[in-house]
Prior knowledge:
The protein is an alpha/beta fold. It has one domain (about 5-75). The protein is about 25% helix and about 25% strand. The protein is built from two helices and five strands; from the N terminus they run βββαβαβ. It has helices at about 30-40, 55-60; strands at about 5-10, 25, 30, 45-50, 70-75. The strands form two sheets. Strands 1-4-5 form a three-stranded parallel beta sheet, with helices on one face. The longest helix has 10 residues, at about 30-40. The N and C termini lie far apart (about 40 Å). About 20% of the residues are buried.
Amino acid sequence: MTQITALVPMRHHSQRVPKKNSRILAGKPLFHHILSTLADVPELDAIYVDTDSSVIAEGIGVSPSNCHGVLLFAMAMENSPK
């Protein structure tokens, strides 16, 4: 059986919209909306988030989607502000 994995890149700094992935939209950060939407896709076997943001990395730990197989694949985060 084929496995399908979502790889979601989430940078801390966007060139056009700074910190867009952690901005609040309808009461929660944008990345929570993205992960919740992906978690509802029954064809996905895993969701990996590739980020350089400690804010997003910490937020994934408290995300309601985390119980749906969201895994963190972190880029070097030592230069990322909290």
